[in-house]
Amino acid sequence: MGSVGDECSQRTSDKSWMAGEGEAGLASIIIPTYNRAVLLDEALASAVGQSYRPIEIIVVDDGSVDDTPGVVERWQREIEHDSHATLRYHRQSNSGVGSARNRGLIESRGEFIQFLDSDDLLHPEKLRLQIDCLRQHTESGYTFSDWTVAENRVKWDSVSGEGAAELESAELYCSLRVSWVMVGVYRRKTCRLAGPFREEMQSGEDKEYNLRAMLSTKRVCYLPGKLFASRVHPGCRITDGLNVGQDYLISTARLYRCMTESAEAEGRLGNRRLVRALQNGWSGIIIDSLKLGRRDLALESIERCRKMPVGLGGRVQLAIYQILTLVPKRVLWIVLRLRRRIRRVVARLFPS
Predict the structure, then answer these.
(1) From CA 43, how far away is CA 180, in angstroms rounded?
(2) Residue 116 is inside which H or E element, if any?
(3) What is the pLDDT of residue 350?
């Protein structure tokens, strides 16, 4: 079994990293792919179909054995007369989505960065609207919108670009609103400062990366509207098999360890909102560990949480969790049913 103590690395496979300010106005669309030729064709259509120009599309083939090269070649021919769009193809041995995205970032030349998984789709106006948002809100290092889920073709809603709101990045620490990197457009500087994706992570790498992105910029911009579609399909996803049970628990614990380490490395554990967000995540891990009989993981998570500057209420909660690791399973289930009520009482008595 894995543990919270697993290594968290923040390096690329070839030890290099993206450099420079990028070409002014150019948007880089980075598409990692593995054995998804049919779906890739539609993803490329949504990338080429962007109303915004200039764009460069970078496909990183993570060792596919299907017709992925043929699909890319067809689209290269399709856009060969578009002087404001290019499509480049890079192939590497199978190394995972984090490695493929890092390769795309290293190869990119754009001032703006858009990630797109090869089984998902972009609204035709996504780049135009979100880049306009960044240009209007110059202090924001990242802009994001809402998303939708689609089984087949997407019926996009009309979007106006109105109602943009600039937010403190602290409002989005560990937020589900930015759990996918595809929902946003990043300034190149934001990606450069955030650093590479953690290539060893098999689940949660988007959320972990976006925490570092939020830590690298004081402000972000939210633009209303569903501008990204996650597709439901029979093909496999990287996170398949990590949805229930102990595998998912271990993966989530690793995610929060990496996010905690990132926050600590940036000297941000003095931020109460960030600590509260991390503590909430650790609390969920502790509870799930107790439910699954993983007392060792619960204790390890409690200790990790105690090392953060949590408030008095948080320390009382951790003490309760410590006691719960000692009680019989039958009693534990009774207490867990009452945990929300207990948390409300603790919050009133010991406000953070």
Answers:
(1) 16
(2) none
(3) 67
Task: Sort residue 195 into left (φ over 0), alpha (ψ -120 to 50) or beta.
Answer: left
Question: If DSSP codes are grouped into helix, strand and coil, which group holds residue 293?
Answer: coil
Backbone angles phi, psi at 219, to 5 degrees: -135, 150
- 148 and 286 share one domain: no
Residue 217 sits in the same domain as residue 299? no
At residue 145, does pLDDT exceed 70? yes
Both 134 and 57 in a single domain? Answer: yes
Q: How many CB atoms lie within 10 A of CB 207?
A: 22
Query: Coil, strand or helix: which one is 56?
Result: strand
Mean pLDDT, the chain, integer = 89
Domain count, the chain: 2
299: left (phi over 0), alpha (psi -120 to 50) or beta: alpha
Q: What is the pLDDT of residues 245-290, one digit of tens each?
A: 788 899 899 999 999 998 998 888 989 889 999 999 999 999 999 9
Whether the predicted pLDDT of 229 surpasses 60: yes
Task: For residues 297 and 202, state if they share a domain.
Answer: no
| Residue whose entry in the numeric block shows the structure tokens 């496979």 | 13
Tokens of 169: 């990045």
Domain hosting 269: range is 245-349
Contact 13, 102 (CB under 8 A): yes
Final residue belonging to a domain, choices 204, 231, 258: 231
Of the candidates 214, 196, 204, the residue with the CA atom closest to the CA atom of residue 179: 204
| H helix intervals, 181-328 | 188-194, 205-216, 245-265, 272-291, 295-306, 312-324
Task: Give the per-residue pLDDT at 3.
Answer: 43
**Do residues 143 and 137 make contact, with C-beta atoms less than 8 angstroms apart?**
yes
CATH number (domain holding residue 123): 3.90.550.10
Q: What is the pLDDT of residues 292-306, one digit of tens each?
A: 889 999 999 999 999
Give domain status of residue 305, yes or no.
yes
